[in-house]
Amino acid sequence: MDTISYVAKSAFPMIWLLVAVVGASIRSRHSTSRRARLEIWQRWWAMCALGLGSLWMTISFVTIPDVMATAIGFERTPFEFEIAFANLGLAVMGFRAASPRATARERVTIGLGAGMFLWGAVIGHVHQWFANGDHEPGNTGGVLVYDVLIPAVMIALAWYAQRADDDGADLPAREVTEGSVR
To answer: How far apart, in whole angstroms, are the C-alpha atoms of residue 124 and residue 129?
Structure first.
């Protein structure tokens, strides 16, 4: 495989991170408060990086399993169907975390849940890399960065938002109705 093709195939999962960063940067550029910026970043990260990225993985593993197996460096197995639906669960959690009603605590929990799956996948990818020399773009490339950053950034953003809420710094007054924050 030539270098350009490898880099292109390896970097593809990073598109979801790029969309989240560009979208949040554009949308938050005129925000006047730290809380508003954090909310925008959390929602874009949850929707694009976790939600849409995981939905893309679901669709890919269900519709083109042979391509996905080759990209990872494995033979096709029924396990790919399980991976598809694990990613569907991540997508649903990402879409929930993108909701305006999601709390910082809920987003931390979703980030931790995503981390358990994605960080476990990183361990598996690295093991295959060193134990079996699997250097396919879907095993050792951008997928490693994607799998590490998605939950880590989600947890960090939610943690900062929770701290901002606790500190009350730079926060506009909040309207509370029946125990929910609007």
So the answer is: 9
Residue 10: per-residue pLDDT: 87
Query: Could you give the angle at the alpha carbon of 53 between the alpha carbons of 49 and 59, nearest 5°?
Result: 165
Q: Alpha carbon of 102 to those of 33, 94, 97, 178: distances in Å?
A: 19, 11, 6, 15
| 38 neighbors 157 (Cβ within 8 angstroms) | yes
The whole-model pTM stands at 0.85
> In which residue are the tokens 């959390």 written?
42
Q: How confident is the model at residue 168 (pLDDT cuts 50, 70, 90)?
A: low
- Which H or E run contains 9? helix 3-11
Amino acid letter, residue 25 = S
Cα separation, 155 vs 42, whole angstroms: 9
Tokens coding 62: 């269900």
Count of helices and strands (H, E) across the chain? 9, 2
